[in-house]
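Bit of a strange request maybe. I'm writing a small parser for structure token strings and I need a real example to test against, not something I typed by hand. Could someone generate the tokens for this chain?
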Amino acid sequence: METDPVVIRIATDFSETPFGRYREDGPESGQVFREDLLVPALDKAGKVTLVLDGVDGLPSSFWEEVMGGLIRAGWTVEKLRRAIEIEVRDPALKVYDRIGWRHAEEAEKRSH
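Reply from user aminoacidic:
Good idea to test on real output. This should exercise your parser:
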């Protein structure tokens, strides 16, 4: 029996202004998001829908640490694509869907 995906709305469940790569960069960093919110949700449900609407943007330091950090933690792009759906309706934020997957793909290429 497949469980429903956990829905994480970055703007309301984490921060409207995510920023920084590492935990020491502050509580709104990519490492904090990945380790404290995203990975536990993946462990619980196996599938996560990330809703990007409502954020002021996703700085590359934050977004690369989230997506690339999963690859560095042992995920593959193929497994991530089965586990994570990125949802975004705001036209100004749609580019972050593509950028997130590019970060994951580039991290995977560097890991070989």
